[in-house]
Amino acid sequence: METQSARNSVNRIRSSLMVKVIFKNAEWQIPGNITIRELITDLGLNPQSVLAVKDGKLVNNETGLGNQGEVKLISVVSGG
Amino acid sequence: MGVHRCRMCSADSVINMRQHRLALCEVHFVEWVEKITFSFIKKHRMFEPDDRILVAVSGGKDSLSLWRILLKLGFQADGLYLDLGIEAGCSYSKRSGEYVEKFAQNISPKVKVHVLDLADIYGKTVPEMAGRRKGGRKKSCSVCGLVKRHEMNRVARELGYTVIATGHNLDDEAAVLFGNVLHWEAEYLVRQSPVLPADGVGLVKRAKPLARFYERETAAYAIICDIEYMQEECPFSVGATSLRLKEVLNSMENSSPGTKLQFYFSFLRAKENSLIPGYKRPELRPCDKCGQATGSPGPCAFCRLLEPARAASRRGQD
Q: Do B215 and A76 touch (CB under 8 A)?
């Protein structure tokens, strides 16, 4: 019982350290111990082509993802 | 690497413009964008406070940001939205128009937005016009550009606007320049400029006040100023050459900050110093059909594009 309870606690802590990342129609839960720039490059995107909005506010690429909340990546490239 | 501080006030910055080695907070970034736009307008003598400006608005980040900036700087600026009739399963044009109308309602009760539906005027949407052309869908972007230029000029002339302002940013300009250099399009190179003067035969002056900014910066301005804009791409732009050129330029920019800025401004300087070979533009004359300026003999490119529709419409009436 105690082991199960400990596991549940660990899972709760883990999920609280995950950040929801949204880009176009996709969504991921990502551990928050990286910067926005690392996230962008890990996703194979060019930092010149996207901006990051964290919990509704524009943030610099060197900002950490944090321990909770939501980061939306917005493509800035348009044209045709 | 720590979070860069705003150069002006040491608050957390929201954007770091590596090409300028400049990081700014929300407040100082908005101030910077507006100040730089004003000096760019003055430097290129784009317009004066007594000019009547028609801003070509698409519902996207650039044109809506431009409209806001011009109004904030005290210019007389109304909007023109052309409903191109792009449906593509997502009501693209309709939704873009909604962003424009909402913006206009919120920004000031004094501004006007002229909304024109191409299908109402010409009986055909842009995708239908493009579909009839050799190359079909692939030509959508060039047909769209042709139609927009024609209609912007027509409306500006008819309603007495002295300048047409478009939201082209530096990435747009650098991509066009890159494409023209790759194909060595001397005629287009000579004509590419942040401002195109009026012409006696009816071409209204055109200006690109945001050509100094990266696309990232115009998007950042829109986000900070809570401008709701159409974030989805035009469905017809998928695979467009200009997007591929932008990708290459952004890749170079990422490894060498300032590449796009230097590319575009070195080109403008080269033009000023007459380093781009001269090209004599064909003399413009009024189109036989619509009366707008054209360099070609007979009808202008827009009227030639519409001709099959007109002929089909005549056949239908017979």
A: yes
CA B86 to chain centre: 18
| Residue B289 φ/ψ, nearest 5 degrees | -95, -50
- Asked if the C-beta of B236 comes within 8 angstroms of chain A's C-beta atoms, the answer is yes
> pLDDT for A4-52, tens place per residue?
776 766 665 555 578 999 999 899 999 888 999 999 999 999 999 999 9
| Inter-chain CB proximity A74 and B223 less than 8 Å | yes
| Topology of the domain covering A2-75 | Ubiquitin-like (UB roll) (3.10.20)
Q: How distant is the Cα of A13 from the closest Cα of chain B, in angstroms?
A: 26
- Find, among B201, B195, B205, B206, the residue nearest to B283 by Cα: B201
Q: Is the ipTM of this complex over 0.95?
A: no
Q: What is the CATH number of domain B30-283?
A: 3.40.50.620
Q: Do A60 and B12 touch (CB under 8 A)?
A: yes
Q: Residue B302: exposed, middle, or buried by beta-carbon count in 10 A (0-12, 13-18, 19+)?
A: buried
Domain ranges of chain A: 2-75
How is chain B split into domains, by residue range?
30-283
Nearest by CB to residue B243, choosing from A58, A61, A77, is A77
Task: Copy the structure tokens of residue B303.
Answer: 């009227």
